[in-house]
Amino acid sequence: MRAALLLLATLSLAAQDPTPRPGVALFDEAFFAGDRRAILEACADKARSLKPKDAKYLAECGRAYLAALDKPKAEAAFREAELREPKDGLVLRLIAQAWLKHGFKSEALEGYGKILQRDPKNKDAVTQAAVDLAEVGLVTEAERYMGVLVLLDKDAWERFLLFGRALLVAGQRKKAAPWFARATALKPSEEKLFLELSRTFAEAQSLM
Amino acid sequence: MLACWLLALPLLSQGLDEAAFRGDARHLAAACADRARLLRPKDAKLLAEYGRAFLVAGERAKAEECFQLARIESPRDGDVHRLIAVAWLRGGQRTEALKAIADMQSLDPKAKNAFTRAAVNLQDFGLAKEADSLMERAWILDPSDWQNCILFGRAALRKARRDAAGKWFARASQAKPQEERMWNAIALAYADSGAEPN
After folding, report:
1. At B56, is the pLDDT very low, low, confident or very high (cuts 50, 70, 90)?
2. What local confidence, expressed as pLDDT, does residue A19 receive?
3. Of B20, B15, B70, which Cα lies nearest the Cα of B45?
């Protein structure tokens, strides 16, 4: 009887205890204003624990782990994403982009290469690969992907504009000019094109 | 009107070649906005954006004319007023910007997404106090909207306002704790130190 009462009292105390269990993050304001790596790891863990169905989210979890400097967990997430969608160029691009953003150049280039091997007609993935590479100054590699895109669609003025913009932002003004000229030659009466160009040059003014 | 079009024809037929795109950036911004206007846009948001390009190019009269046309075209669209505010913010005209933000709130008082985006813009341009108060208003309109909380939290991180970011990420996580996209979005916001996603 005494033991039962003691157990009941302990249980009731445990239920009132607001202290989080070890290893379990309490997601309040103080937590989110705290250590960056801990936040990254905890949020990525939480996202993975909800068992994302979409391989793109898994790839993004991997990027968060890379930012938290947890390479093994990142690689596991990337492997799972790739296993689920081995031929989806957009998933492959997210993985490559994650490596690129965190300074793993050879892993990134290998990842982008998989897009051309497995999903070579995916215009979105090919363009995004070119833009990612241009943004970090890997111009030769970026232009190789744009070459592939031109073979897929020689009239893709919106993509040419996007690529020109990435080159401009990366300080490659001379390299950007032919892509802008190509877009305007294709669509000389498209107001959205000229608006985007005016916006691009207005924003990039400080970089020139 | 016909005369205007006849005058515009030589400009429309001019090609923009590679050399043109290597010229002066301010001049290019204005030239492209001029060309876009010659195509006679009806969309108020586009008009507001042309105004922005003219402001950057130092052509205030043309900019104000565009803003006025945009307001006439869509007087009750909060996002149009926000775009006008952004143009003024970029041009360093704080008073005009805050006037456009006030117009947005009075003419489209339930536009929570426009309020959030405007709060992000204000924060990006260093008007933290005004940004916080506008974001609070957006949140009251829909406390379950975790995407807006994250958008603002991300912008706070960008400006190194860790406490403000913490508040909005906590609100996002309380709004939808079982949403994997939400946790991913918070993680990536920290991974990118709040930089604009691409």
Report:
1. confident
2. 41
3. B70
- The residues, ordered by sequence, that sit 6+ positions from A147 with a Cβ below 8 Å of its Cβ are none
The structural domain count of chain B equals 2
State the smallest CA–CA distance between residue A166 and chain B in angstroms.
11
Cβ–Cβ gap A50/B36 under 8 Å? no
Q: Do B184 and A44 touch (CB under 8 A)?
A: yes
Whether complex ipTM tops 0.85: no
The beta-carbon neighbor of A47 closest among B20, B28, B180 is B180
Distance from CA of B36 to the nearest CA of A (A): 5
pLDDT in tens, B112-169: 999 999 999 999 999 999 999 999 999 999 999 999 999 999 999 999 999 999 999 9
- Indicate which of B21, B192, B193 best probes the interface with A, i.e. most A CBs within 10 Å of its own CB: B21
User: B4 pLDDT exceeds 50?
Assistant: no
pTM, rounded to two decimals? 0.81
Residues B142 and B180 in one domain: yes
Query: What is the distance in angstroms between the Cα of B52 and the nearest Cα belonging to chain A?
Result: 8
Two tokens, residue A183: 């877009």
Determine contact, residues A200/A160, Cβ cutoff 8 Å.
no
**Residue B82 and residue B29 share a domain:** yes
pLDDT in tens, B183-192: 999 999 999 9
Q: Which domains does chain A have, with CATH numbers?
A: 34-102 (1.25.40), 121-208 (1.25.40)
- Tokens, residue B113: 């997404």
Interface contact B32-A195, CB threshold 8 A = yes
Verify that B38 and B105 share a domain, yes or no: yes
Question: Binning pLDDT at 50, 70 and 90, where does residue A85 land?
Answer: very high
Question: What are the angstrom distances between the C-alpha of A93 and each of A83, A107, A163, B103?
Answer: 14, 12, 16, 42
Distance CA A129, CA B123 (A): 31
